[in-house]
Fold this protein.
Amino acid sequence: MRPNVMNLRKKMAEVVEQHGEWTAMGIKITDDLSTLEPMPVDRRLSRITQVLADLLPKPLAQSRILDLACAEGHYAIECALHGAEVVAIEGRDANLAKVRFVKDALGLDRLSLHQDDVRHLSREKYGLFDVVICSGILYHLDAPDVFQFAKRVAEVCRGFAIIDTQIALLDKVSQQFEGREYWGVYYTEHASDAPPTERLRDLWASIDNTKSFWMTRPSLCNLLREIGFTTVMECHIPSFLNLPRDRITLVAIKGRRAPIVSSPPTDSLEFEPWPESPPTEPINPCNDPRIELKNELKVLIPGVVRRPLAEFKRWIRSHRAAGPAGPWEWREPWRRR
């Protein structure tokens, strides 16, 4: 065994003795050493890195990245290994000690570490970033902190934010923020009588709040729009097949509203918030089992009966009163048949 590896193992053992084992993030230090052995596959790391590669308008080495509540720092370390200037913020000293060990072992001079509460994020304190990685933190905050934090994410972001989070599948409770209503559920982070030291030891929960507010997908998307993001997309590829249904990855882009030159009515459209319970949308008949059954029954009717009925239906449609936009109001092409 090479002396430098022996030295790294010794330092790593000291970190583990003081702060505990690495809990999730397997990071390669040398060919002979990693933070977790055997090293696990991290599909979230793959997804985040691919989004960065595909959407950044410049190389990572020329970009400034913020990793919020970085935990053991895998995303921050990966970006720094690509040459990016990275700021990682983490509230727990135990997590930060592990990130610091890897940073020093790999010589990542462009990675800066800050022990801070992400709720203290501000442009004045940390500056602007091409990308903000907000993975595994939004759903650990209670209202109104979760709304203020999301707003600060938008304020420091000049490119896009990657938001990997739990969402509520039910709209049980609502919260108000800046005149808007957002729906979701409460999640218990700690027992109400848990002392601060116990809350800090729970590395995969909030730092201090005993409950958190999980927003529904519509509420979260509406919030991102209200705080300044112009496009919000959900990432499905790279795939993460064993994720629960209430865990999603969103990419929120901080841009400017695109002007529509060819259609003034379209250009004047106001933002329509996503409703919590959207109305039933029309679908193409080929996807409607009722239509399929109807077509199957239709062929059983003799043509001598079916043709006059069809003519009568066409006559009824042609004599219906036109809507406010006239008889040629745009509809799905298949609905003109």
Residues 3-19 form the longest helix (17 residues).
